[in-house]
Amino acid sequence: MVKMVKSKLHRWGLTTDQITALAGNGTLTDRITLYSPVQGTVIEKLIVQNSAFKAGDALYRIANLDTVWVYLDIYEADLPWVRYGQQVEITAEAIPGRVFKGQVTFVQPVVNEETRTVRVPVHVENKDHELKPGMFVSAVIKSALAGDTHADHAVQTPGAESAKYFCTMKCEGEKTYDREGNCPVCNMKLELVPKATAPGVGVLAVPVSAVLDSGTRRIVYIEKSRGLFEAREVVLGPRTAGFFQVISGVTEGERVVTRGGFLIDSQFQITGHPSLFYPGGVMGGSEVHQH
């Protein structure tokens, strides 16, 4: 019977010392101190003295600010650059000159239909509690342009070379596991760590200035020989700095026009050759034109 009562008091939130003190005193009390089950900072107080409450009501909201989550809104066009495990540099106007380091922990599988963005949570160490809940921050995700941009390629987390599985809830921080199974804390299924992008893999790219974009199609002009040009429709990948990755339309070694492309295109239009806005040409001319 005593064991059952002690177990009930434990469920109510009393500590072992409090239960022992109550048993030793042998007297009733109308006041008891309930301790928070977690260590942290009170961020919201939902009750005042003499307030009534019932089971399930939240009295305080407590957060451990030693680590915080930064939620980034990533536009659809930028999604090819974002992968699990990438390092993130975070700055806040409220803390000038300070750069916080974080890591991409998840890429949500849905797009916000109003903003056309995908939310990406980033785990950030915040031991000095400089970052506060609700702050606006800016973030930079550095990604290398590699030869294969499929979803199974990503930057691995430090130490992930020997461990292959991780918990998406980050119950134990950045810890990874060497076998398939469930998280020992939350019991959720462990996910496979994405493969690392092979270093030193180059890609075919053209300068941004070489691409003529009508909104529905993109072309570049290839120099077939001196003064002889050909309009070539291209399929492009992500943009990085001053270059577009080329998926198809141009092969390695071909020379592309990087300046004066619109001038050449206007000449193609005047002569009726296929051009940016007239894929078949006005008079069905050849795609190759002397200029």
Walk me through what this model shows.
Strand 17 and strand 18 form a beta hairpin. The chain has four domains: 2-35, no CATH class; 66-143, Elongation Factor Tu (Ef-tu), domain 3 (Beta Barrel), CATH 2.40.30.170; 146-201, no CATH class; 205-290, conserved putative lor/sdh protein from methanococcus maripaludis s2 fold. It contains three helices and 19 strands. By secondary structure, it is mainly beta. The protein has helices at 2-12, 16-25, 261-270, and strands at residues 41-45, 60-63, 67-75, 87-92, 95-104, 117-125, 138-141, 153-154, 165-166, 176-177, 191-192, 195-196, 205-207, 212-213, 218-225, 228-233, 235-240, 243-248, 288-290. The strands form six sheets. Strands 3-6-5-4-7 form a five-stranded antiparallel sheet, with no helix packed on it. A four-stranded antiparallel sheet has the order 14-15-16-19, covered by helices on one side.
CATH class of the largest domain equals: Mainly Beta
Our Rg estimate from Cα atoms comes to 30 Å
Q: Can you tell me the number of structural domains?
A: 4
Biggest sheet overview: 5 strands, antiparallel
Strand order of the largest sheet: 3-6-5-4-7
Distance between the termini: 100 Å
How many helices does DSSP assign?
Answer: 3
Report mean pLDDT, rounded to a whole number: 81
Note poorly predicted spans: 148-163, 196-200
- The overall strand count is 19
Shape category:
elongated
Q: Helices and strands, in N-to-C order?
A: HHEEEEEEEEEEEEEEEEEEHE
What's the architecture of the largest domain in CATH terms? Answer: Beta Barrel
